[in-house]
Amino acid sequence: MTYDHCLAIIRASAAMGCPSIGFVEALKFETGLRRIDVIGEWMPGDAGQPFHWRGLTAGNISKDLILTIETSKTHVGVVRDLTVLPLVVEAMKAYALPKLGPVVINEETGKPYYDNRYTKRFARVRETAGVPQYVWSMDSRAGAVTETIAATGSIERARDLATHTTAKMTERYARSNGLEEARQVAEAREKLRQCNAVKRV
Fold first, then answer.
1. What is the pLDDT of residue 193?
2. Which burial class, exposed, middle or buried, applies to 175 when counting CB atoms under 10 A from its CB (0-12, 13-18, 19+)?
């Protein structure tokens, strides 16, 4: 998924009356969070205990739109300022954050999404948005990693964004063919040559 794909999905979902889809994809693309951490899920309790909610809730987002959450897979604490994430800001023009409970609500049911229902609805939005069928919801996280590496030249920053435990895992998410990175390397080397030439004069 690219920035343009995500923006098209945000706009299509708003037009279709299901802006929650655009909000989820924007949040994943901008923050690198996993879908399950954003849409959440009900988890069975231990030894007969009642089910409990795991995932993003209104309590994870402060009044000044600072998101704080612990990821479900790696249990890493994540803090993100939603006001500096353009796609999230765009999505929130159509999607109002609830004041209580889970953040992501299926507009058709008034309840949180089941994972499979989310993917089916995403597919309908993707088609309306004109985004290619090979772009899946899970690709927004890969898009976040790929864009971060291209923007910063740092696999470590992408690893931190995606809360991976190793850079090797992050490399699996990077979908670049290496062209943009090669261009950045060439540009950096040319700048170095110019600096060295000035020193020699």
1. 79
2. middle
Mention every residue, 6+ apart, whose C-beta is less than 8 A from residue 47: none
d(CA 1, CA 19): 18
Name the average pLDDT for the chain: 85
The answer to whether the beta carbons of residues 156 and 40 sit under 8 Å apart is no
Q: Which residues pair with 111 in a beta bridge?
A: 106
Q: Is the per-residue pLDDT at 69 higher than 60?
A: yes
Q: Look up residue 51 and give its two tokens.
A: 């089910």
d(CA 154, CA 135): 24
The half-sphere exposure of 126 on its side-chain side, counting CA atoms within 13 A, is 20
What is the rounded average pLDDT of the residues 103-121? Answer: 92
Residues 138 and 5: beta-carbon distance below 8 Å: no
**CB-side exposure of 41: number of CA atoms within 13 Å?**
14
- What is the CB neighbour count within 10 angstroms for residue 66? 13
| Cα–Cα distance measured from residue 118 to residue 51, given in angstroms and rounded to the nearest whole number | 21
User: Residue 115, CB half-sphere, CA atoms under 13 Å: how many?
Assistant: 10
Q: Is the pLDDT of residue 170 over 60?
A: no
Whose CA is closest to 22, among 130, 135, 122? 122
Sequence-separated contacts (24+) of 171-176 with Cβ below 8 Å:
173/141, 173/142, 173/145, 173/146, 174/142, 174/145, 174/146, 174/149, 175/139, 175/142, 175/143, 175/145, 175/146, 176/146, 176/149, 176/150
